[in-house]
Design a protein that fits this description.
Length: 484
């Protein structure tokens, strides 16, 4: 058994440190002291990494926000001293979930602009207006004027961009133009793919500049298929994309970062020193996770089990909390979003433990996973409202199951026909791409979203992070969430 135990007050330390609303993870309200840089993410911040890919909640918006925060940049510079990203790096926003019409066109403006201009020209104008010196720009406020001016004045544009790049080279600094939240740029796939394709073309174009670097943070579904990559030399930009992944040790590294810098950080750090001889280092008022803890998974496991105990039940047959938690939050590709991880832990800490010798009860951790699943399902509903309609008829089923059982449920409910009629008669946000192929096409769409998992014997499974929230069962698994 674990020799050192954190006091039961650890529940309060967790509640005070972890965000109450995990949706704020990664936005501009995120504090620099909670910035944790996984080793695998360091390259994603580099100027020459122009395409960063990640599932929802993986940290795309987090790094966009961090790159625009001088204190976060200072921390990144300290942690990765050989990085080309420093506090001197110039940062502009090319697209974001936060409206800023002077810096970039919003969704409705993009639709209007696409009626007259190529997506590549629109995004090129955004980069141009971001990096060109104000005194070199014409006095134009509307994008309906800016885009055609740029198209009609190619030579002045080239000279201005060239001079801006040369000035940056002399200063030895980069100018990054960040594109995030492209899912907010369109409600239909055709427009979405058109915009992403045009943006990738602009990224390719600016590879020839020395210091001007547009950088796109994209979700996997933005890059699916040939629709976004059917232009010459697309492979040159896509082959260098980096995916934001969160292995278990980095998820826990993020937890240590929160606890070490939370309101009770001094108590947590003292416990780490007393029980595990771990010393956190301070940089500009921010405590950073010791390198030993970042690299030694066995040590991280002991530290977490000092909070939870070693088992997910009365004995080892039920698994171990350190591995059980991320395993039950992963999608079919075993990817876990830090947002889900933090949500599960916060809800676990909010549960009243029974007579138990550790701060977090294993049943509380299971409840945390149920709550995290509800959040993940709500996020999916925001992105793809049609998924909920397809999953409702399946509520109560046990998994894994034959796909024919799912098809029968869909046929009995008539959901596919109803959904198809809605798509034909009204706008359905980012509808299923393969609905015309029937149930098999829908199955592929759900597999692409990471909801359905095709087993070797052809049956369908759904990872717990979705299964629980959608109300499906699995023998021996975490109990499904009740319908609200």
């Amino acid at each position: 058994m674990t020799s050192y135990r954190f006091p039961l007050e650890m529940r309060e330390w967790l509640l005070s440190a972890l965000p109450e609303d995990t949706a704020t993870f990664g936005d501009r309200r995120h504090e620099a002291k909670y910035t944790y840089l996984p080793a695998g993410h360091a390259r994603a911040l580099q100027p020459d990494c122009m395409v960063v890919k990640g599932i929802r909640g993986a940290g795309k918006s987090f790094w966009c926000a961090a790159l625009q925060d001088k204190k976060c940049l200072s921390l990144v510079e300290a942690v990765t001293p050989r990085s080309d990203v420093t506090t001197s790096t110039k940062i502009s926003t090319g697209f974001s979930s936060t409206p800023n019409p002077l810096s970039y066109p919003g969704k409705n403006t993009l639709v209007t602009l696409l009626e007259k201009h190529k997506a590549q020209d629109i995004w090129r104008a955004v980069v141009f207006w971001s990096v060109a010196p104000p005194d070199a720009l014409p006095s134009l406020e509307n994008w309906s004027d800016r885009v055609p001016w740029m198209i009609q004045n190619p030579e002045p544009v080239e000279r201005i961009l060239y001079k801006a790049d040369q000035d940056l080279e002399r200063e030895k600094v980069y100018h990054l133009v960040l594109f995030d939240a492209l899912d907010r740029s369109a409600d239909d796939w055709k427009t979405m793919f058109t915009l992403v394709r045009g943006l990738l073309q602009v990224l390719l174009e600016f590879r020839s500049y020395k210091r001007i670097r547009p950088k796109a943070f994209l979700r996997p579904d933005h890059l699916e298929g040939a629709a976004t990559a059917d232009f010459p030399d697309a492979s040159k930009i896509l082959s260098q994309r980096l995916e934001l992944r969160w292995p278990a040790w980095d998820l826990y590294g993020l937890l240590w970062q929160y606890l070490a810098n939370g309101p009770n950080g001094n108590l947590f750090r003292a416990g780490c020193e007393k029980g595990f001889s771990l010393s956190f280092e301070e940089h500009s008022g921010i405590w950073t996770v010791p390198s030993k803890l970042r690299s030694d998974e066995r040590l991280a496991k002991k530290l977490f089990h000092a909070i939870t105990g070693e088992w997910m039940g009365m004995d080892a047959r039920r698994g171990f909390p350190f591995t059980w938690l991320p395993n039950h939050l992963g999608d079919p590709l075993r990817q876990v979003s830090p947002r889900s991880f933090l949500a599960a832990l916060r809800h676990a800490a909010d549960d009243n433990p029974r007579d138990y010798g550790f701060a977090l009860h294993y049943e509380s951790i299971k409840k945390g996973v149920r709550e995290a699943s509800k959040i993940r399902v709500k996020e999916m509903e925001e992105d793809y409202p049609w998924v909920q309609r397809l999953m409702d008829p399946l509520r109560g089923m046990n998994l894994p199951c034959a796909f024919e059982e799912i098809t029968l449920k869909w046929e009995e409910s008539g959901v596919l026909g109803h959904l198809k009629r809605q798509i034909e008669s009204e706008t359905v946000k980012l509808p299923p791409l393969r609905i015309d192929e029937g149930p098999k096409g829908i199955r592929q769409d759900l597999e692409d979203l990471g909801i359905f998992q095709r087993l070797l014997d052809g049956r369908v499974n759904i990872p717990d992070v979705y299964r629980i929230g959608y109300g499906l069962g699995r023998k021996g698994g975490v109990k499904a969430a009740a319908r609200e």
